[in-house]
UniProtKB/TrEMBL annotation:
GO terms for molecular function: electron transfer activity; heme binding; iron ion binding. Keywords: Electron transport, Heme, Iron, Metal-binding, Transport. Residues 43-120 form the Cytochrome c domain. Heme c binds at C56, C59, H60, M97. GO terms for cellular component: membrane. Binds 1 heme c group covalently per subunit. This is Cytochrome c550. InterPro entries: Cyt_c-like_dom, Cyt_c-like_dom_sf, Cyt_c_BACSU-c550-type, Cyt_C_IC, Cytochrome_c550/c551-like. The keyword Transport applies.
Length: 120
């Protein structure tokens, strides 16, 4: 009788472990969310300027000189294209810098990141 209970419990534990295995996000997935990978794009300066004009200058100033958001005129000396991509995608400062991953295409964000990374 007791053996029967033990193997029953063991079976339930196994099923539980298997379910967890498939429902918990893997390490890869977590790492990806923490640092999104930037898609490869070739710089299109005209498109970058258009996106920045439409989405960024309200806070960063029309010359990127800074306003409610910080100056970005030499941001390329501080952040790499990947870091810029990550910041623009996810936002910063608890929403003070908004997340753009649902507002812009990944390629548009990557293009702006590349464009900003050359601001040195
Ligand atoms: C609603 C205002 C607002 C808009 C719109 C906005 N930003 Fe920001 N941004 C901020 C603020 C505020 C910060 C500073 C956040 C912090 O450091 O806590 C910031 C920070 C940043 C940083 C990080 C600077 C650093 O030194 O780490 C980058 C890069 C940046 N913004 C780029 C952009 C780009 C590109 C766009 C347009 C796609 C944009 N921002 C649109 C307000 C804004």
């Amino acid at each position: 009788m007791q053996k029967w209970i033990m193997s029953g419990l063991f079976f339930v534990a196994c099923v539980f472990a298997i379910v967890l295995l498939f429902t918990l996000p893997g390490k890869d997935q977590v790492a990806q969310e923490a640092k999104p990978t930037m898609p490869e794009v070739t710089l299109d300066a005209a498109q970058a300027e258009a996106v920045v004009k439409a989405s960024c200058i309200a806070c960063h100033g029309d010359q990127l000189q800074g306003q409610s958001g910080p100056n970005l005129q030499t941001i390329g000396t501080v952040l790499s294209a990947e870091q810029l991509y990550s910041t623009i995608s996810k936002g910063k400062g608890g929403g003070m810098m908004p997340s753009f991953k649902d507002k812009l295409k990944d390629e548009e964000i990557a293009n702006v990141a590349l464009w900003l990374s050359e601001k040195k």
